[in-house]
Amino acid sequence: EDAQKLLCCDGLQQLGCTAVYHMYCLDPPLTRLPAGDWYCPECAHKFRYQDIERVLDYRSSLLHPPPPPPSTPTPHSTPISTPTPNPHPQPHPHISPGPTRREYHVKWKGESYLHCSWEPEEGLAKMYRVRGVVCVCWGGGGEGEGGRGLRESREAEEREAEETGEYVHGVNPLWLEVDRILAEQKGRAQMEYLVKWKDLGYDQCTWELESDIAGYDAAIQRFRETKWRRGLAGDLDLPPVKRRRRRLRAAWRMCKSRWGSGTRKWHSTPDFLHGGSLHPYQLEGLNWLYHKYCTGDAVILADEMGLGKTVQTIAFLASLHAECCELPHLVVVPLSTMRNWEREFETWAPNLNVVSLAGNVEARQVRKLKRRMFHSVFFDRASAKKDRVKFHVLLTSYEMLALEAGQLSKGLQYGVLVVDEGHRLKNKDSKLFQLLTQFDVRHKVLLTGTPLQNHLGELFMLLHFLEPDKFPSRAAFESRFSSLSQNEDVTQLHALLQPHMLRRLKNDVMKQLPPKMEQLVRVELSPQQREIYRSLLLQHSSVLVGHRAAVAAAGGATTALKNLMMELRKACNHPFLVAHQAGRGGAGRGGRGRHPTDLDSLVTHSGKLQLVDKMAMRLRDAGHRLIIFSQFTRTLDLLEEWLVGRGLGYMRIDGTVAGSERQKRIDRFNQHPDSYFCFLLSTRAGGLGINLATADTVIIFDSDWNPHNDLQAQARAHRLGQDKPVMIYRLVTRQTIEERMMQVSRKKMMLEHLVVRKMSSGGGGELKQSELDDILRYGAQELFADEGDEG
């Protein structure tokens, strides 16, 4: 019957479906034959659920709303006005809420979190074992006791989400906010935009209809303003004649005849900066950077950590943009600081078009292609068409630079190359040093709070990278300044460095910054630690006794000594860290992913942890917040166990935490002081470019061989934004390898003081009496005691 109106499902081959429907029997009925393949409702349902990327959350919902509670009129009641209906009606306690069904919050492939939806379990069950998936996601079991624990954990997460603004039903609210528009295209009925979402990578960009992102007109307008921008601010607002005249004036300013003038100077915060007012010393830094750009002197901005080198650099790049520099700039930073750099650019220089190159292969492809970093819209007399870059600043990390160096350096000139944490260029044979020399740059700027760490050779390599013609030979440099015992040598070195380095200290330029005090705390070994320390020395006695002979005969058997040194340092932290002691305390690798060790045993076995345990409780009661640094991630594992056992809220960052996740944890710690008391950081991963000014107490659980790494760590709390005095506690175990490490570190700090710090104070200043007293008295008692023992 009505064979001409029958529709056969096209899911025969894929799903084996043989369903046939009349067009008027469908819901809703069809009035005309569909174009292309047609699938019955059941097959269409199956195909739809094949596009699920993952399940985010689940809930139980009522199939039917509960009936209103029965009214019981009171005798002799008087008529009253109709009450306002309750927007959140509560079911009557004597009425069953009715049947429920489980729904799942799903993320669809190729679509943003804006289009997540709740899907019924019966529909998903035909395609997936959803219940098992959700149980794995939430770490729960079925119903009963496991289900009750699951519900409690979910309720706790929802409460935390309300407080912190984090995940709600598996979705971070930031993922629903437009970060920027990358491209546009005409759709069937309206414009479509390629959207980069906040706090998500470029590999998760999606095309959205204009109606879906209503309310983000500013992002669309910003995209359109930068779509054909050629590097000059405000071009679109000018008539064509004035626009051309402005470009000619810009070319004249940046031509070689203009090179070397350096006459521009700002006496107050420029109008092109929107983040606030610069401090006087930051304004001085801006003028110095701009002057050195014009005079052609590559430089090192070596301000002490926490004085805002990032802001000064952004102000400098914004000044070049305002002065009509058409060349793009390349900024290379540590991965952990990329998000902070992005935020500072958005705050201080929103007019700059900043492209961040990071993430996986897909994310980088989206940025290179969809953001159209290169586009051919510039015409000149020399060639019919010339490629120009669209961005003003390319922001990337060391790791991404190694992957994309060929693409980024080919046929492209940069105005300024900025390298954050520039002391990483102290080795000429390093991969980063070799890569950066491939780039064609007009000017170079290194940012580092520690230009000299161990010896003068490291400082020379930084200068050689900046000015290879002026500083060609390391041997000649070291030979000339091998001895800095004479004041004349120090003065000559300062005169050589003066044109290329600007160094300011917090004590000199930030009088209002709260003081920082460091206390060296000597800790005794626990009986268990003392036993292990002695056993390690006895086990390696042959290495210690035969070391000199081995050095003379074979050129040095240092590997065994380094291994012993590492084991001794671990023993000073906690006996559970030593390999053959892992089984005794049950700590293994510090306890991650297993049942925690007995808390009392964990604390009493370590002299350092005994002290920290007592300090932490008093600090918390007094309203302080704590940062703990350690060289070893396994030490952080044990400290994490201790914090969990004491019920203290904490955050943690080490080398295994991704860059985007690092910034989330930093923000969470800074924004919620009542929830998080302590921040655990590895010295190398957490000592660079991290702002934790909401904490006022720092404990260095174990010192670094390089004292400047510990200074970097201290600067995480003692920096701009800190309104409390900062107390630093450096833990050193008495009569162990750690005391000798401190003596070696002081020698390195003395060299840095002679070469860098005296230059920052004018070059002619003498050491303060307190500094001399501190340097001379340090270690004297232990040295005389050792001499007495030997006598």
TrEMBL record:
Biased composition annotated in UniProt, kind: Pro residues: 64-73, 82-96
Domain Chromo per the UniProt entry, residue ranges: 50-124, 176-225
Pfam families assigned to the protein according to its UniProt record, in alphabetical order: Chromo, Helicase_C, PHD, SNF2-rel_dom
Coiled-coil segments on the chain, per record: none
Annotated InterPro entries: Chromo-like_dom_sf, Chromo/chromo_shadow_dom, Chromo_domain, Helicase_ATP-bd, Helicase_C-like, P-loop_NTPase, SNF2-like_sf, SNF2/RAD54-like_C
GO cellular component, one term: chromatin
Main localization of the protein described in the UniProt heading: nucleus
MF term (GO), any: ATP binding
PROSITE patterns to which the protein is assigned, alphabetical: CHROMO_2 (PS50013), HELICASE_ATP_BIND_1 (PS51192), HELICASE_CTER (PS51194)
Domain Helicase ATP-binding stretches: 290-469
Keywords: ATP-binding, Hydrolase, Metal-binding, Nucleotide-binding, Nucleus, Repeat, Zinc, Zinc-finger
Protein's cellular compartments: Nucleus
Transmembrane segments: none
SMART domains: CHROMO (SM00298), DEXDc (SM00487), HELICc (SM00490)
Region of interest (Disordered), residue spans: 60-101
Domain Helicase C-terminal span(s) in chain numbering: 611-762
Record protein name field: SNF2 super family
Taxonomic path: Eukaryota, Viridiplantae, Chlorophyta, core chlorophytes, Chlorophyceae
